[in-house]
Write a structure and sequence with these properties.
Distance between the termini: 38 Å
Number of domains: 2
Mean pLDDT: 93
CATH class of the largest domain: Mainly Beta
Helix content: 25-40%
Structural class: alpha+beta
Number of helices: 6
Order of helices and strands: EEHEEEEEEHHHHH
Largest sheet: 5 strands, mixed, barrel
Strand order of the largest sheet: 1-3-4-7-8
Strand content: 25-35%
Low-confidence stretches: none
């Protein structure tokens, strides 16, 4: 698959979640505009604030420009569509902007029935988080309606409840939803999730 890559410090884009990103650099603004014009997905690559290299597993999706500011910066929203492996990315130069050919990561979203109680506990935990932190009733309803199944709930738990960015990335590396459920459940039991 062809994609553009945007390294974003302390940020993971989970599939099935929506992430706002402020884009200030003119070259990155141009990258987003090119993405939209060419209908090429954007990979949001994780890196820690003090790192120079991004990590190999990234979420991807199509960005939408929500706001263009007077200083030329933009606010985008990106809906996570899946994960890709950037480790073997092949660069395809095209003027100032570089495309990359990458491999899509195929994930297992089939819930192991032995983990259903863990999943239900995480769902309830997340529903309580929504009640406490999403004040506007319309936004709350929209949020809850977007959580249509196991994969959406688990992705949202990873994106919104895991406070440590490295732990979020560890979750991103997992390709089996049952491994993700066990990981998140352990974090919940050890009070490592945002309450």
């Amino acid at each position: 698959m062809k994609t553009f890559i945007l390294a974003v410090p302390n940020s993971n884009l989970f599939p099935f979640t929506i992430k706002p990103i402020n884009i200030q650099s003119p070259i990155h603004v141009q990258l987003i505009q090119q993405c939209i014009a060419d209908k090429v997905p954007l990979a949001v690559a994780f890196q820690l604030m003090d790192e120079f290299r991004y990590r190999p597993i990234a979420g991807y999706g199509m960005p939408t420009i929500s706001e263009t500011r007077l200083d030329g910066s933009i606010l985008i929203y990106i809906q996570g569509e899946g994960k890709i492996d950037l480790a073997q990315a092949t660069s395809l130069p095209s003027g100032v902007i570089t495309y990359h050919e990458v491999e899509v990561i195929h994930e297992n979203y089939e819930l192991d029935e032995n983990l259903r109680l863990h999943y239900v506990a995480l769902s309830k935990y997340f529903a309580n988080w929504i009640d406490r932190h999403v004040i506007d009733a319309t936004q709350k309803d929209f949020f809850i309606q977007s959580l249509v199944g196991v994969k959406e709930v688990i992705a949202a738990c990873g994106a919104y409840l895991v406070r440590d960015y490295e732990m979020q990335y560890e979750l991103m590396e997992m390709t089996n939803i049952n491994d993700q459920i066990m990981y998140l459940h352990r974090l919940m039991l050890s009070n490592q999730l945002i309450s």
